[in-house]
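Q: What residues go here?
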């Protein structure tokens, strides 16, 4: 009697495996995954009254608020906790409240809270979905006027009301589904070179999401111009903020296309364009810098 090794067949015909049949099966699976991803993405379509645009979002406003509140303590911990001086924290909160109460942000379902983080070395500001807004002590120390702080907070409020977090999550799910389908369709276990095709598909997906990130920053800059002016601040203060970020970054910035954030010089151009559109006859006198 032949042993186990004697009975086993290694020939393609004996095992019943067909590379062509296997490739066709992978292609059908890939098409099904891609179709499901696209259909799921299209079902997230919603209209944003603040930005006056149709967008695709993966969360309800209530879910955005819940996620932001849940993540806020962790963000504080990562940046050294809250700044110890309650008067300075209250000042940041007062400027943020003024921006919300005098703009369209007050008519949204979001719960805005403004946090000053005890990190003197990092120049950063960011917002979580739902209205949790953060600015570091390092960036705060680099600003000279209340109007500049308003520009920073107005930009972050723009991220919240434009629903960039929920929008990005929907786009990320779509990208993951499509790149996953591309990997399945192009990968052949009998052809090691096909691994390169899979890597290229994943890289393209990452670049798509980077592009979305840069567009979000530009849109938030435009909203920041709108909100600061509506709240009585001079939107030109946002240009000074970009100059601070540019000087802090020096000459070591990555090329714009491969960066999530456009470089400050490019953002200054867009802010100036937004100011010109909002005030074709010039910025009125009396706005607070």
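A:
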């Amino acid at each position: 009697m032949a042993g186990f090794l004697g009975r086993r067949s290694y020939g393609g015909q004996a095992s019943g495996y067909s590379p062509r049949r296997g490739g066709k099966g992978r292609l059908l699976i890939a098409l099904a995954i891609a179709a499901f991803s696209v259909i799921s993405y299209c079902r997230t379509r919603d209209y944003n009254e603040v930005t006056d645009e149709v967008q695709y979002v993966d969360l309800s406003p209530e879910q955005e608020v819940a996620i932001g509140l849940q993540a806020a303590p962790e963000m504080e911990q990562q940046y050294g906790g809250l700044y110890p001086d309650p008067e300075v924290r209250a000042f940041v909160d007062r400027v943020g409240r003024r921006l919300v109460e005098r703009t369209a942000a007050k008519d949204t379902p979001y719960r805005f809270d403004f946090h000053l983080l005890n990190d003197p070395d990092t120049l950063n500001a960011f917002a979580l979905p739902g209205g949790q807004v953060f600015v570091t002590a390092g960036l705060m120390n680099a600003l000279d006027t209340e109007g500049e702080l308003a520009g920073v907070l107005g930009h972050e409020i723009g991220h919240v009301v434009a629903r960039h977090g929920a929008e990005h999550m929907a786009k990320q799910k779509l990208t993951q589904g499509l790149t996953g389908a591309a990997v399945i369709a192009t990968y052949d276990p009998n052809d090691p070179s096909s691994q390169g095709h899979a890597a290229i598909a994943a890289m393209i997906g990452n670049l798509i999401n980077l592009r979305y990130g840069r567009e979000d920053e530009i849109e938030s800059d435009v909203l920041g111009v709108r909100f600061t002016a509506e709240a009585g601040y001079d939107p030109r203060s946002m240009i000074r903020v970009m100059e601070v970020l540019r000087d802090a970054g020096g000459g070591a910035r990555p090329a714009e296309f491969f960066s999530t954030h456009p470089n400050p010089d490019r953002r200054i151009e867009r802010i100036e364009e937004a100011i010109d559109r909002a005030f074709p006859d010039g910025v009125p006198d009396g706005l607070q810098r």
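A: Context that may help when evaluating the design: The chain has one domain: 38-278. The two ends are 94 Å apart (CA to CA).
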